[in-house]
């Protein structure tokens, strides 16, 4: 089972990413796209990575925006290394 | 531009559907699946219909659940015939 990270560790991890925030025991980012198709394409790409990492984000889509929130169910809904790892993957998908 | 429907008209339309609710000027339903892949598959199928109808839902996914909320931006965020039409389409995707 993944252990919850300390707030310091989370802030440290987020410093390596762009525009992720830590609140309500989740790490979150809103991504913006040119249109709905690109937003759905992003969700689809995330879904393959989520299955591979056996870790699943909360995904919220409204037209050209996708908001991703990450926490670890098995760690009492706290943020763990699994969330940081998936955030890094999602960030790299967004930048490629 | 689509006109907002009266509450009575909305309730009447929802009576033909299953487990949709009307609140906060939206019509909403939570759909449940066997797993994450099926949930993402449902989102993908919805996305094609949304593009075809030129009308886009709010989509919220957590693992095997997908919550869809519909309202019409061009009608001041109220519920219109466009929302009812897309709800019917989404309902039919779920049942097939």
From TrEMBL, chains A, B:
Could you tell me which Pfam families the record lists for this protein?
Pterin_4a
Q: Which UniProt keywords apply?
A: Lyase
GO MF terms listed in the record are:
4-alpha-hydroxytetrahydrobiopterin dehydratase activity
TM ranges are: none
UniProt signal peptide: none
- Keyword Lyase annotated: yes
UniProt cross-references to InterPro entries, sorted A to Z: PCD_sf (IPR036428), Pterin_deHydtase (IPR001533)
Keyword Lyase listed? The answer is: yes
As recorded in UniProt, its EC number(s) are 4.2.1.96
Query: At the top level of its lineage, which domain of life is listed?
Result: Bacteria
Annotated catalysed reactions: (4aS,6R)-4a-hydroxy-L-erythro-5,6,7,8-tetrahydrobiopterin = (6R)-L-erythro-6,7-dihydrobiopterin + H2O
Q: Give the record's family classification.
A: Belongs to the pterin-4-alpha-carbinolamine dehydratase family.
Q: Provide the protein name.
A: Putative pterin-4-alpha-carbinolamine dehydratase
Species annotation: Fodinibius salsisoli
């Amino acid at each position: 089972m993944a252990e919850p990270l300390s707030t310091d560790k989370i802030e440290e991890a987020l410093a390596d990413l762009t525009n992720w925030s830590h609140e309500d025991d989740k790490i979150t980012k809103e991504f913006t796209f040119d249109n709905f198709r690109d937003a759905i394409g992003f969700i689809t790409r995330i879904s393959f990575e989520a299955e591979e990492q056996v870790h699943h984000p909360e995904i919220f889509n409204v037209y050209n925006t996708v908001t991703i929130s990450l926490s670890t169910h098995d760690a009492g809904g706290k943020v763990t290394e699994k969330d940081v790892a998936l955030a890094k993957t999602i960030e790299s998908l967004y930048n490629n």
